[in-house]
């Protein structure tokens, strides 16, 4: 069953608390723009798929975890698009938040979403309080320092960039957090599921590098060629297109093979294959096949 409609409802519920009374109105609209301007919701779907594979006995906790992760992902995109980072004027086919509402409100919208993510965990886990502390720790590790997306973004400001570390922290960390949070919400051991996130996150990074080179801005929903423009590392420069396609397939295979053999694992394997196919630039799909 597609979890996307339930995720959208959960996000709407979360934002209803943040935007209560429409105050301040412009910030409320900027936050809504950041979350509801599109998006495949792959990270919360991954979180929920892992929870379902583990039996998902605490559905409120798993949905809270998935919602928090998507709010944090949205916050990271708002900040990533800012002039001080990628200076991107488009995201998900719409104007970036700083283009639509100005840079100050974009900074505040990202900040508000980070706070809202943890508020959502606290509120929605009220009926499963024994899941709250481990979920907060799991999600925080995925976004903070030294191994989360904040650290990943910071690598762009270092005089020398470790490409492997940069990709692992900026992209893969939130996938690892999603798989670990899904298992943690279901009161299962997250360790066997973390490699799924590592490999899927690596596959996403390779696919994103290929898209930056080979996809149009319309297809990506954001400007193409940003890595070259901003002097950021791109695996195509190192491996070439053929090498990246081979590396992508390797990570997908590893992600599927890493899924623990449990009754609900087939749905997760299908999700992995479907998402990677969706991300592949159209002009490269036949080559990859």
Describe this structure in words.
The protein has helices at residues 4-18, 25-35, 42-53, 59-80, 97-101, 103-124, 129-143, 149-154, 163-185, 191-214, 217-220, 226-230, 235-258, 265-279, 282-288, and strands spanning 90-91, 94-95. With 289 residues, the protein is mainly alpha-helical. It has one domain (4-288): Farnesyl Diphosphate Synthase (Orthogonal Bundle), CATH 1.10.600. The chain has a two-stranded antiparallel sheet with strand order 1-2. The longest helix is centred in the last third of the chain and has 24 residues, at 191-214. It is globular. It starts with a helix and ends with a helix.
Computed structural class: mainly alpha
| Helix fraction by DSSP (H/I, runs of at least 4) | over 70%
Strand content: under 5%
Encode the helix/strand succession as letters.
HHHHEEHHHHHHHHHHH
Gyration radius, rounded: 18 Å
Question: CATH superfamily assignment?
Answer: Farnesyl Diphosphate Synthase
Strand order of the largest sheet: 1-2
| Assigned CATH class | Mainly Alpha
Number of discrete helical segments: 15
Total separate domains: 1
Defining traits:
Farnesyl Diphosphate Synthase, mainly alpha, 15 helices, 289 residues, 2 strands, 73% helix, single chain, two-stranded antiparallel sheet
């Amino acid at each position: 069953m597609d979890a996307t409609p339930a995720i959208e409802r959960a996000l709407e519920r979360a934002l209803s608390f943040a935007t209560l009374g429409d105050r301040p109105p412009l910030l409320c609209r900027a936050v809504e723009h950041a979350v509801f301007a599109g998006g495949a919701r792959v990270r919360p779907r991954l979180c929920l798929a892992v929870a379902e594979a583990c039996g998902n006995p605490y559905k409120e906790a798993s949905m809270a975890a998935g919602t928090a992760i998507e709010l944090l992902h949205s916050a990271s995109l708002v900040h990533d698009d800012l002039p001080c980072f990628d200076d991107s004027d488009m995201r998900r086919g719409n104007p970036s938040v700083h283009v639509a509402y100005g840079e100050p409100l974009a900074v505040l919208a990202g900040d508000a979403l980070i706070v809202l993510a943890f508020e959502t965990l606290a509120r929605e886990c009220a009926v499963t309080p024994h899941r709250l502390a481990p979920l907060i720790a799991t999600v925080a590790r995925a976004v903070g320092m030294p191994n989360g997306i904040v650290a990943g973004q910071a690598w762009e400001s270092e005089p020398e960039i470790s490409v492997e570390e940069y990709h692992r922290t900026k992209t893969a960390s939130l996938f690892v957090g999603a798989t670990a949070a899904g298992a943690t919400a279901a009161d299962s051991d997250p360790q066997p599921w973390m490699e799924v996130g590592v490999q899927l996150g690596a596959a996403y990074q390779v696919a994103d590098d290929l898209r930056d080179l080979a996809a149009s801005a319309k297809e990506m929903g954001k400007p193409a060629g940003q890595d070259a423009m901003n002097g950021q590392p791109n695996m195509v420069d190192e491996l070439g297109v053929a090498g990246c396609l081979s590396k992508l397939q390797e990570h997908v295979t590893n992600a599927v093979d890493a899924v623990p053999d449990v009754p609900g694992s087939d749905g997760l394997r299908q999700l992995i294959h479907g998402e990677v196919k969706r991300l592949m630039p159209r002009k490269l799909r036949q080559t990859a096949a």
